[in-house]
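User: quick one - fold this with magnesium ion bound?
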Amino acid sequence: MSDAPPERKVVIGPDDAGERLVAPEETLDETTLGATLRPRSFDEYVGQTAVVDNLKIAIDAAKRRGEPLEHVLFYGPPGLGKTTLASLIARDLSSGMRTTSGPTLDKPKDLVGILTSLQAGNVLFIDEIHRLGGVVEEFLYPAMEDFRVDIVMDSGAYAKTYKIPVERFTLVGATTRAGMLSAPLRERFGLLYHLDYYSDEELQRIVTRSAGVLEIPIDADGAATIARRSRGTPRIANRLLRRVRDFAEVRAGGEITHDVADEALRREGVDGRGLDRLDRAFLRTIADQYRGGPVGIGAIAATLTEDTETLEDVVEPFLLKIGFVVRTASGRKVTADAYEHLQLAAPPESDAARQQKLL
Ligand SMILES: Nc1ncnc2c1ncn2[C@@H]1O[C@H](COP(=O)(O)OP(=O)(O)OP(=O)(O)O)[C@@H](O)[C@H]1O
Ligand SMILES: [Mg+2]
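Assistant: Sure. Structure tokens for the protein plus magnesium ion:
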């Protein structure tokens, strides 16, 4: 193994402060860069083939009938291409897209303003749609269903509802937390698509494509090495690529090969599976402090002085995905694979487990 020997100590607090290289969320400079690297057609969009195929069929059918596309909901972890797909839909429909997000739409007035200014066939993209306020959400229902907004003027006996028509539009919603979406809202989407983590091979294609766009010299092994450490996430793949490029330019003559990528990422604390210090601290906390678990997320969060939401949203999903952590009714447990990866000895069988076997 080329990775640095694991430190036995659980690194917490200040050592871990600062930006995570493998965080799936978008950083500010990536918002601009995203525009450069974002696929401009479905042909350039790598992976998620079932989603893309079904989406294309729905778009073609809507076009043939001359109707707007049904409302679409994308859900899945951050950085997998939800915003990208929304813009590809608008492009394919040859229509404009308005972009907004749940947290910014805090007054019904804002939403009504947007809805009434839409043109026929437009795509309205609402990111983080699970964070729409309840009142705002209720304005969305008649707009989605009957293309109108209901505005109530005055109150009591004089109350009057004005129904204002809106153009036939397509709402595209994106959320990382489908479970937090209210049932009435979820039911108003005709098309629901779950985005899953990408395979290493797909990520390798994405890295190769991005390197081409950014004119970075890279060989196949170099791209594969970055892909393997990108946690199934295109946004992370693109970020690691840029970080490795810096190292390649300053220390290694410019070209990204396996050795260059490996060395650059190891220096950044990103190991062979794409785990960083926080992931390893998470695993070690369970392994060392809680003898492998089961332990509640709250206790892990307290030990690591991290907030529960961060751990649940951006650390745990990938560890669950690669089978390093399992969730049981009584809490999180680390698996034998995780012990092996961290080069830790598995704990002696617990009394509870032994008893279970005897029963
Ligand atoms: N299938 C893909 N092929 C190539 N590049 C992709 C693909 N999906 C995403 N990307 C790249 O990854 C970046 C992140 O994608 P995007 O912003 O669409 O993710 P997201 O799912 O909207 O994330 P978030 O949940 O954080 O909003 C984009 O800038 C794009 O360059
Ligand atoms: Mg997005």
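One thing worth noting: The radius of gyration is 24 Å.
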